[in-house]
Amino acid sequence: MINYILSTIIFLPLIGSFLTLLFHPNDKTMQRYIALATCLMTFVLSCVLVAKFSPEASGMQFVENYEWVSSLNISYLIGVDGLSIALICLTSLLFLLCIIASWDRTTGVRGYFALFLMLETSVLGTFAAQDLFLLFAFWGSALLPIYFMIGVWGNKNKEYAAT
User: Fold this and answer.
1) Which DSSP string do the residues of 21-39 spell out, in sequence order?
2) Helix or strand or coil: residue 53?
3) In 3-state terms, what secondary structure has residue 64?
4) pLDDT tens per residue across span 71-84
5) Separation between Cα atoms, residue 45 and residue 39, nearest integer Å
6) Angle formed by the axes of helices 5-22 and 28-52, to 10°?
7) Using CA atoms, how far apart are residues 57 and 60, in angstroms rounded to an integer?
8) Which value, to the nearest 10 degrees, does the dihedral of the CA atoms of residues 14, 15, 17, 22 take?
9) Which pLDDT score, from 0 to 100, does residue 81 have?
10) Which of 22, 47, 134, 157 could share a disulfide with 129, CB 3.0–4.6 Å?
């Protein structure tokens, strides 16, 4: 478990996003609770990551390296240092608080929480990425949820702001 904790933290919200899409659009209570449970588990795991982090050690910790496209020297390389671990923990806390703050949302609950959890995966992956291609993949994958969240649930001039 501890060997893959960073990947678990990154992709757990994506799994929660797909789970919210499995339920009927009218089952808003279950979708809210899935989003809350997913963010809570992500935050707890990020706290475990902080507890297991050794500040005395130099370099990256919790490193996972898997060759992806060998001809282009692209790999799934993630890890954390002192700054990125703080950003990951604070991000998971912020997303948890945002889920709680948007609990009373009544329109498009399923889509909102699904996109919200996809966005969390993208942000967490951006902070953990150690390969430039992987960084751009996570960063770019954040654009789609942001675009739709602004365009659908934004305020005045939301379509203009999204574009």
Assistant:
1) HHS-TT-HHHHHHHHHHHH
2) coil
3) strand
4) 888 899 999 999 99
5) 10
6) 180
7) 8
8) 150
9) 93
10) 134
Q: Which residues contact 61 (CB under 8 A, 6 or more apart)?
A: 53, 54, 79, 80, 81, 85
Among residues of the chain, what percentage have pLDDT more than 90?
72
CA 123/CA 156 separation, integer angstroms: 26
101-156 pLDDT tens trace:
999 988 889 999 999 999 999 999 999 999 999 999 999 999 999 999 988 888 88
What would the two tokens of residue 58 be?
A: 């130099």
Predicted confidence band of residue 26 (pLDDT cuts 50, 70, 90):
confident
Is the separation of the CB atoms in 86 and 128 below 8 Å? no
Backbone dihedral region for residue 25 (phi beyond 0: left; psi -120 to 50: alpha; all else: beta): alpha
Q: What is the pLDDT of residue 143?
A: 93
Find where tokens 């960084």 sit.
135
8 A C-beta contact, residue 154 and residue 162:
yes
pTM of the model: 0.92
Residues 68, 158: Cα–Cα separation, whole Å: 38
To 10 degrees, what angle do helices 5-22 and 109-128 make?
A: 170
